[in-house]
Design the sequence.
């Protein structure tokens, strides 16, 4: 069984098509791994019987030589995607018992492509967090442990921490994630796997529980770049139900992985080299640039002058949109309802009991920056800075084909560390937020280990709807880095 768990997405696809394995065997291996891996708390809801039924249907299709791009491959769904008849919690108490009568477009696309659902994956409440410690369903644990650090439990990153932990810990062959300010790329970096945020509009947001509507974007979390290319192709596509969905054809992303980046120009933005950056992160970044240079790319120094304003801009716009989106949870239409002596008191009691502290903090910030008298000073000004950030990237892409940066300012940290310092927690997204604000595609690729044996990733950013270049360069970086370390969890570490 353990050999089956080591197959990547494309390897398993090929083995299924050549009938070396069956989807039922592969799915059963993952159901067993989920049972053994409960200590990671990666899943909120497991759906083993549904998975067995879907695998059986896939095997019937494969026996007839039919099936989609993901036929028979067992994956996990971040519990932010609505799935028909299956609890969709968004990691929040306020959605207790919510079982949608509909399917999100991304999950439907994946089922249409033949994917098998193992269950719904844990996340920071309403995707708000960078450590997966704000879920109503408890902290997710990173499968990695520090060398010489005893058995200290580490965060997997957030908000797609359950997805990243499941893929890294071999509890799912791949998983979906959503990225609002870095919530796919940062946990991928912390867990030593690949996470890709496509261009805003490439994947439909319909049926995804909204956090910040102008930022949220679905993407794949996988063990390697080739798997990301396969899964993104199955997830993406125009959706008339989402007015922000781009009406563009979906390229063959896997075919873009030619391995040839000779003559391409890779930008290194000087503003990402920040005061206090750990030496090992800086060294990894330089090493990544050398790898791409050795593969034939030209390294170009560029400037993104408004980078330092990106994080404060994000923490005005995202909470503003969140405060608006979360107004719908009032005890009437969804999930939890607390009683009260009046309608207003019922609203108040439900929202007070249903939302966690981080969600309440962001709703308060968002309500403040949108309030009369402060809208112009904060929200409107933030939107103007956002336009300047976009111009920075437009200018940069007049010189280069892609941009290389660190993914996160550190390796994974211990659960509880920084928990009482929200500003420090928000800084975890300092390198990923700029691309989110302007909707660009980005991928995090594991490139090396920290001094205490934890994975570190580098991020590649591309032009809008040029995921092919991002994947192509990411694949070359991955091959050059040769990252093959595995988490302690797989060696029996707890």
Sequence:
């Amino acid at each position: 069984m353990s050999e089956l768990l080591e197959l990547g997405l494309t390897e398993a696809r090929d083995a299924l098509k050549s009938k070396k394995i069956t989807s039922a065997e592969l799915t059963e291996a993952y159901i067993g791994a989920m049972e053994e891996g409960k200590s990671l708390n990666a899943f909120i809801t497991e759906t083993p019987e549904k998975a067995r039924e879907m695998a059986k249907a896939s095997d019937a299709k494969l026996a007839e030589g039919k099936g989609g791009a993901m036929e028979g491959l067992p994956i996990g769904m971040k519990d932010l995607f609505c799935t028909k008849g299956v609890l969709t919690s968004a990691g929040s108490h306020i959605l207790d018992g919510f079982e949608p009568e509909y399917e999100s477009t991304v999950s439907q696309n994946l089922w249409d492509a033949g994917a098998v659902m193992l269950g719904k994956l844990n996340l920071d409440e309403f995707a708000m967090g960078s450590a997966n410690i704000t879920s109503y369903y408890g902290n997710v644990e990173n499968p990695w442990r520090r060398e010489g650090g005893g058995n200290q439990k580490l965060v997997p990153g957030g908000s797609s921490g359950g997805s990243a932990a499941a893929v890294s810990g071999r509890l799912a062959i791949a998983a979906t994630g959503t990225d609002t300010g870095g919530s796919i790329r940062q946990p991928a970096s912390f867990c030593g796997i690949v996470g890709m945020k496509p261009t805003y509009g490439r994947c439909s947001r319909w049926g995804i529980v909204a956090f910040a509507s102008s930022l949220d974007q679905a993407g794949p979390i996988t063990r390697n770049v080739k798997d990301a290319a396969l899964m993104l192709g199955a997830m993406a596509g125009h959706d008339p139900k989402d007015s922000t969905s781009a009406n563009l054809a979906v390229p063959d992303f896997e075919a873009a992985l030619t391995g040839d980046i000779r003559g391409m120009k890779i930008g290194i933005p000087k503003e990402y080299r920040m005061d206090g950056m750990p030496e090992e992160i800086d060294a990894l970044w330089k090493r990544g640039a050398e790898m791409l240079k050795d593969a034939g790319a030209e390294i170009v120094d560029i400037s993104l002058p408004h980078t330092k304003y990106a994080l404060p801009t994000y923490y005005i716009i995202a909470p503003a949109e969140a405060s608006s989106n979360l107004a719908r949870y009032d005890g009437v239409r969804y999930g939890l309802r607390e009683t009260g002596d009046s309608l207003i008191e019922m609203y108040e009691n439900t929202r007070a009991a249903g939302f966690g502290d981080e969600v309440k903090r962001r709703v308060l910030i968002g309500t403040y920056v949108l309030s009369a008298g402060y809208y112009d000073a904060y929200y409107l000004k933030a939107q103007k800075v956002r336009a300047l950030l976009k111009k920075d990237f437009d200018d940069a892409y007049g010189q280069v084909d892609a941009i290389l940066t660190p993914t996160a300012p550190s390796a994974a940290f211990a659960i509880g560390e920084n928990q009482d310092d929200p500003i420090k927690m928000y800084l975890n997204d300092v390198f990923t937020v700029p691309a989110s604000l302007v909707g660009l595609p980005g991928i995090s690729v594991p490139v090396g280990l920290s001094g205490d044996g934890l994975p570190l990733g580098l991020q590649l950013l591309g032009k809008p709807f040029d995921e092919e270049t991002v994947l192509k360069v990411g694949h070359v970086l991955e091959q050059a880095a040769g990252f093959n370390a595995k988490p302690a969890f797989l060696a029996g570490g707890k």
Remarks:
- Residues 286 and 436 are 24 Å apart (CA to CA).
- The radius of gyration is 21 Å.
